[in-house]
Amino acid sequence: MPETAKVAPRKPQKPFFFNTSEHLLRIGRQKANTLSELLHAMQTCPDDSIFQHTFRTLQEHHFIRQGFSNDFAHWTLFACNEPALAEQLASVDVREFTAIEGLRRRMVDMLDEFLQTENRPGSRPAYEPFYFCASDIVVLPTSFCAETLPGFLDGINQVSVHSIHHHFIEARLRLHRMSNDFSQWLEEELGLGEAADEIESIDIYANTMEGVRRQIARIVSQAMN
Amino acid sequence: MSSEDRRTTSAGSTIETQAPTNGSQKAGAPVSSEAPAHPARRATDRRVADRRSMNRPLPASVLTPPAPPPAPHMDDYAAIVGQVQIDTLRFLAKELRGKTIKMVNSTAVGGGVAEMLNRLVPLLSELEVATHWDVITGGNDFFEITKAFHNALHGTPYELTKSAKDIFLTYNEQNRARMRFDEDLIVIHDPQPAGLICSKATTPAHWVWRCHIDLSNPNPGVWEFLRPFVEQYDAAIFSSQSFARQLPIPQYLFYPCIDPLSEKNKELPESLVQQICDDFGIDRTRPIVTQVSRFDRLKDPVGVVHAYKLAKKYVDCQLVLAGGGASDDPEGAAVLQEVKEAAGNDPDIIILDLPPWCAVQINAIQRASTIIVQKSLKEGFGLTVTEALWKGKPTIAGSVGGIPNQIIHKLTGVLVHSVEGCAFQIRYLLTHPEFARSIGSSGHEHVKENFLMTTNVKRWLLLFRILEQARALRGKAA
């Protein structure tokens, strides 16, 4: 276990406001009955549909540890019976992207290449259609605001998993950098760069969101002691 | 079946248990012959069957409707979903404080919509978003036509006549003249009052159409008649992505929900679960496979019997088929008879035709079950699946309607497409209790996140805020 706090953290200039985001599912206009239709729809759907089926689905299914990490991979396996493509799509880590366009491009390229090089019948009907959806988002405050590291730990332990998702996973689309709100605050306000890095490297796909919360709390606790 | 084996309650409901035989059972099941008694079970079969065939009186709660319990308050849900979730609802409601909602549907009692509104309306009002509930009125001719519309929108053939259109429009106009629409958000449920949208121009309110019907394959004539009304709303809400139509207005997905504090879903004392199982002759020392549903062919109760019999060749279990609808529906009675014939003389098949107020009994049976099955051939959303998942039960269900929204195959339950698939999953889950526990637990979390009444309240608040924000943005742009 790496040591994360060799120096006492300084007093933060700015408090950490724990917010949360709540989503309302909107049914999109596109649907796919085949892999070719999925490719076309992925190329043309709005950004918020890509967000819904990748970032947002992680929050909707935050309690699941196994299974595929995004809706495209899940559908590719269970409705199209294409495990190799499903594994490729599932390997895409949303945290490698700070904008939806890059994420879309990576998945479209994978699907396009699969259909061309594997010479697969892209027109074979799926068992059930893929319905494109999107989210309308409302960001809300919570009653937690941290002005100290113990207060921060208290917030981490008590906010909803939606708040954890908002600050830890969705944040990179807001920050446009490969980080998250927790790591950014710990580094910029408290000088805890090592703890910030350790939090950023938590594997979100091998954990439930509660597991992610516990790991963040452990790292922050270590930084306090 | 002997008369001793058929116990009829004063409410007309019955408990059917099958008399023990000496091995020769009724043939005729299309899938398989009868399963032989499991070796480990032979010694106790007769004792159990003897106990089940005793003519016990049913508890009073089954014979007469119980008094309705008091409606829960928002804070009562904190113990279930966590205080943080309740705080989120309060934060969401804060900006809407003082604004008002009107819900309009076609019936005050009976049916899932009225049941849902009974809980939703007071909870929204408790959050200081005053919510009124109005019910349209109409004659028998109106409700006969809207019933036909309902069936036609589900795909039943129907010839839409000018007279039917006139009756629909006349009653909608009468209700429109009678009602006031002073609220900030008007929600019209289902097609019956859809014509009230003609008052939209006279109010500044947001108008939303909440469709609880599967519109994936509607009768074209009825849908084309209703579509011009629907297109005037500011938004439409459907219960599943697959139920929606292509419309020029935003369409939202609101899953149906269950109330975790209702009689059907609340926690029960273990002693009550045991007592109810004893009353029905259900042996809790052995695995219990249960399907809860009306005696309706689309729920495939006969298929469940066949699946049980296939599984019973390998694993010991009992089958409980608990439902209703046989005493007031000729088709239900016919289906019940088919189920009895399929069950033959198996003493481990318990068929319960219960009156509609037996929510606590259904709750107890679900909680006592080892596995719950919902092998529907066609389904709306499938709230019995939601109830099973909420109770943490490993659930096997047909991959139809809204069920795949609830059951993610092998993660929150298992989906099946045939009698044989259902039989295999019964065997697998009964012999792999760790896996069964794992999917049961994930299923419970899935319901907690997506299909509870508190989530439903949140969706309404979110929608209201989103409509308000969109209007404010349009105002700024103008």
Question: What would you note in describing this structure?
Answer:
The complex is a heterodimer of chains A (225) and B (478). Chain A has 225 residues and is an alpha+beta fold. Chain A has two domains: 16-21 and 140-224, no CATH class; 24-134, no CATH class. Chain A has eleven helices and two strands; from the N terminus they run E-H-H-H-H-H-E-H-H-H-H-H-H. Chain A has a two-stranded antiparallel sheet with strand order 1-2. The mean pLDDT of chain A is 91. Chain B is α/β, with parallel strands linked by helices. In chain B, the strands form two sheets. An eight-stranded mixed β-sheet of chain B has the order 1-2-11-10-9-12-13-14, sandwiched between helices. Chain B contains 17 helices and 14 strands. Chain B folds into two domains: 3-52 and 281-431, Rossmann fold (3-Layer(aba) Sandwich), CATH 3.40.50; 97-260, 3-Layer(aba) Sandwich (Rossmann fold). The longest helix of chain B is centred in the last third of the chain and has 25 residues, at 453-477. In chain B, strand 1 and strand 2 form a beta hairpin. Classes of the chains: A alpha+beta (225), B alpha/beta (478). Chain A binds chain B through residues 20, 22-27, 29, 31, 60-64, 66-67, 74, 78, 128-129, 131, 133, 136, 138, 140-143, 158-160, 162, and chain B through 82, 84-85, 87-88, 91-92, 238, 241-242, 244, 246, 250-253, 399, 404, 408-412, 442, 445-446, 449-450, 458-459, 462-463, 465-466.
